[in-house]
Amino acid sequence: MLVIENLNKYYGTFRALNNVNLTIKKGELFGFVGSNGAGKTTTMKICVGLLKADSGRITIDGNEVGKNTKLLKRKVGYVPDFFGAYDHLTSIEYLTFFANAYGIYGSSAEKLCEDLLALVNLTDKRNNEVDGLSRGMKQRLCLARALVHNPDLLFLDEPASGLDPKARYELKEILKSLSAMGKTIVISSHILPELAEMCTSFGIIDRGVMKLTGTMRDIQNATNINQMPIAIVVDSKEEETVNILRELPGTQYVRPLAEGRIEVNYAGGRAEEVELLKILVSRDIPVLSYGRMEGSLENVFLQLMGGPGPQAPAQQPYPAQQAQQPYPAQQPYPVQQAPQPYPAQPGPQQEVINR
Amino acid sequence: MKFLKRIKLPNINAVLYKDMQQRTKRSGLMIEVFLVNMLLTLIALILLVSMGASAAMYSPINYDIFPTFFVVLSFLEFGFVVIVTPSVSAGCITMEREKQTFDVLLSTALTTRQIVWGKFWSAILQVLLLIFSAFPTYALVLMYGGVSFIQAFGVLATLLLITIYAAALGIFWSSVSKKSMVSSVMTYVFLLILIFGTISFVATVKGIAAVINEAMLETTGHTSFFKGDIFFFVLYLNPLCTIFDSISHLTGTSIFTSLPGMAGIGKNVTDFESSNILLMLWTPISLTVQMLVSWWLLESASKAIDPLRKKADKHARKRQRQQKTA
Ligand SMILES: Nc1ncnc2c1ncn2[C@@H]1O[C@H](COP(=O)(O)OP(=O)(O)OP(=O)(O)O)[C@@H](O)[C@H]1O
Ligand SMILES: [Mg+2]
Fold first, then answer.
1. How far is the CA of B13 from the centre of ligand 1 (A)?
2. Residue A42 alpha carbon, nearest atom of ligand 1
3. Of the candidates A188, A222, A256, which is a domain's last residue?
4. Is residue A76 less than 8 Å (CB to CB) from chain B?
5. What is the pTM of this model?
6. CA–CA separation, A284 and A159 (whole Å)
7. Which of B 3-32 lie inside 8 A of A, CB atoms?
8. Does the CB of A97 have a partner CB in chain B at under 8 Å?
9. B38 partner at 20 to 30 Å CA-CA among A2, A310, A332, B18?
10. The complex's ipTM?
11. Which residues fall within 8 angstroms of residue B325, CB to CB, at 6 or more apart?
């Protein structure tokens, strides 16, 4: 669907994109992750024809960007990171304008716009002025706007920024349903975990260089994600579990936490992970949940960005806490944000039981 | 506006329609229309009364005042066109940039040409609404006679074309500027250059030519061929000259004698036997020139807002050179 080859972009002497290569297949929901200034917006703008690349080739459905602009504009929808609203226009007038812009007029435009408003849950704001809508509503309206011409490929630049957890959740639901309709969606974000559960593939860009692309598993395999602790929740027999774990040769350290939660650093990859669970079950341990730490995605990201690696045991977020707040309200780069999920220094020694 | 909704033109330019929607909804618009008309009517009445009073001293009814009245009114309208049009048109595209709506607009299926022309016509329509709502005042003058419909129509058409000229200039500056402020200032500056700059330029050239000729006459006994007359036609670009010429049939004076600073400038030009027709058809020729310039300005604006037409900057050119040598 979208193929980017050796894309380069300079702003003056600054190289914003450095030989970016990327292939996105039809129907994929692609998560485009990178920190501030990584080049996400630049890449997207080039793809939708709002910026001219210095070199490289982009093809959408086999059509080269910059050649058949007219056709491409009908294939592609774009929601920019920042956008304004028109004064004195109501939501429905706003959408109708864009329908007209794509050559859809009259009653068909009317019906289309009503449908789109319903899709993004804004029917009750139909006659409200766009300028008076809340940030999240504007975001949804802009998404509806990007859909007026029923594009096959959607570029969404940080659509979740500035949204509250509920609005994020709703946005995700809309995106999932669009994806189910067979649209290819490229969505950018600063935060990898935010995209983890909905995207089918990912690309991680850092300072203009495409660091990694692939599915979540590809990304996990490419990093030493396997050094992340495994989180185990048991119904009872906590001490017994800890003892079993300590006896196993693969265990690097065990960290018992409150309410039956235990974190263990276990050598090896997926196979060993499976083995460990088998051992626990065979020893009659009532395992409630078992898996790599959820917050580990954060770590993959940080590791790729050259931040602190996953060597240190996790202190802050463990699954239960995450479940309470699935969509963190704060946007920017997590390293700069308190609480720091993975401090570079190892956690307090007394809590870590070394072997 | 409800009435706009009922207009079901199948393929009306989307930008034009949207801009008109926005403009008509602006609460200030009707007040502006009202004020402009009040002002015009007031000036007209004052003129009518004062001229009528002075005329009454000589004869009971003097119908000559009506053409004069018409002339004054036309110049007033010209003044409004020149002042109002830039303020309406120069913000058209920069406003979209400032409100961060422009990227989205550019990403739609609209061509840059459609965007520019939509903006252009929306500006024109607003100026027309403001300025030509003074028709009743004109009608008053026409009712009293003294000016034929054809004459009045000619002057109004000229004003309309001058509006187009000024609007195209505003749109052009709007397309190349980032800020509405800059674009407005540039449009006004360029209008001033077109109106007064061209006259000063021609006067200067003629002055220099005269000095050279005098020197030539003293030293060689012959006058130089260079009279600077060809530069006179720069004034085709000047909308003030156009409106002056279009009402000269009413005033009986031509641009060459009555325009401030013009006295004597045109005198030598009329010696140009072959170019006489160029002077006689001043209004149509200058309007044609101005419309061509307007068209060129709008085409340039369409290119200027096209992100894919951006020229390589000096760093990019340097890199390209390095690549070639490598
Ligand atoms: N118009 C511009 N002029 C000069 N430099 C620019 C311009 N736009 C972007 N850059 C630079 O290019 C780099 C990439 O910017 P870009 O906006 O693509 O990053 P991003 O990944 O979208 O970041 P963010 O997460 O903050 O939105 C940045 O270092 C930025 O400073
Ligand atoms: Mg960005």
1. 34
2. 18
3. A222
4. yes
5. 0.80
6. 46
7. 8, 10-12, 14-15, 17-18, 21-22, 25-26
8. yes
9. B18
10. 0.82
11. none
